[in-house]
Amino acid sequence: MRNPPPFRVPGMRGSFVAFASALLCTLCAATPLQVGVLDKDGQPVVDAVVVVITASKAAPSRPLPKEVTISQEKMRFVPAVSLVAPGAKAHFVNNDPWDHHVRASAAGVAQFDAGPGGSFELMISGKPEGKPGKTADAIFDKPGAVLLGCHLHNSMRGHVYVSDSPWAALTGPDGLAMLDAPDGAASIKVWHADQLIDIAPLQVMLGDGPAKATLQLNVVPRRKRI
Ligand SMILES: [Cu+2]
Fold first, then answer.
1. 121-172, pLDDT tens digit by residue?
2. What's the per-residue H, E or C state across 143-157?
């Protein structure tokens, strides 16, 4: 990892530099980037979203999904966190034999009446024996984190993170997110469901081979129900 750029060029010159580097970057390769996310105690954090913000207009070789399936299984959302592109469609599949009344709202909003566009509700009947689970679809248009819950089962909690930047990845059980990012100046930010105060993004300069970075939350995520 190199040092962050020592200065920023404001105004017209800045736009020109950004424009010129965007042009150049259509030719330059993406850099493999490994980002580790640790909790307050230094333990690896699973299901954190790592987002790389860059001025580059290049597109990643592996775009974020435009379609995902989120199952309701044994009173849980599976997967617990989905990372998608804006406009992605989610298929909710109820694999439990009982009904779920899925609700969604912008994460961080205390109440579920987040207003038009920010929330939805889906009543999904229980899975009939020997038949596929009932489904309902929803579109995630708004960038940011969406909290999923269930009106019937308070313990159910899940998230959909809609990333504006196509350069984003989820951390695995080892706390590592592997992604590619275009060469040049970038800012790396992290989102986690239990991290309610934003962590300051890490400013980096990417290029000249693989890079590694580490971000630390200032919370210890609450343990998942087994
Ligand atoms: Cu439910």
1. 999 999 999 999 999 999 998 899 999 999 999 999 999 999 999 999 999 9
2. CEEEEEEECCCCCCC
Q: Is 31-216 a domain of CATH 3.90.1750.20?
A: no
Q: How many CB atoms lie within 10 A of CB 95?
A: 15
Q: How far is the CA of 93 from the centre of ligand 1 (A)?
A: 12
- State the distance from the centre of ligand 1 to the C-alpha of 150, rounded, in angstroms: 5
Tens digits of per-residue pLDDT, 140-149?
Answer: 988 999 999 9
Residue length, the chain?
Answer: 226
CA of 102 relative to ligand 1 center, distance in Å: 7
Q: Compute, in angstroms, the gap from residue 216 CA to the centroid of ligand 1.
A: 33
Kindly list the domain boundaries of the chain, sorted by start residue.
Answer: 31-216
What spacing in Å lies between the alpha carbon of 169 and ligand 1's midpoint?
A: 28
DSSP E strands: which ranges in the chain? 30-38, 49-54, 67-73, 76-78, 81-84, 88-94, 100-106, 120-124, 134-140, 144-150, 158-162, 168-170, 176-182, 184-191, 202-206, 211-216
Q: Residue 157 C-alpha to ligand 1 middle, in angstroms?
A: 10
> Ligand 1 mean position to 147 CA, how many Å?
14
Q: What is the pTM of this model?
A: 0.82
How far, in Å, from the CA of 66 to the mean position of ligand 1?
25
Residue 208 clears pLDDT 90, i.e. is over it: no
Closest CA to 53 of 206, 192, 177, 193: 206
- 3 state SS of 116: coil
